[in-house]
Amino acid sequence: MAHVELSLSEVFPPAAGTPPEHESDALGRWSSTVSHADEPCLLIDALTRVVAVSAAGCELLCLGAPDDVIGLPLLDGGLRLLDFTANRCELADQEVDKIPPLLALSSGGLARGLLRVQAATAGAPDSTVDAISTPVLADGAVAGSLTFFSEV
């Protein structure tokens, strides 16, 4: 299993020349980083809408193109989660709230877990991914979550 370490010590002020819409909130500051990342990662807001996702994240999570899911609720944007039973049923609602990106929002702390993602193409194998999420804070409140994924 891949080893992931995550440490966010402080948020630096935006650099000179940063567009004003990205200066106003913590999510805006992370959005560009996530969008251009080589690693599979995802940024959602407190309402679970996708703020940014890397191309590698879209590929791993079978979401299509990043522009297709930006602004949509995470679970309405094409993410299909399955349970770990042999029947591979859709994840029950009470279990969905426990996936790392959503758990980081509700708990305000780090969250880690495995997800089984349904393949976009019929007949293709499903993916199992390790997800580690951290809440993104703005003015002391949880404004969203940042998640990094690794294929298992």
From TrEMBL:
It comes from the Bacteria. It comes from Micromonospora nigra. This is PAS fold.
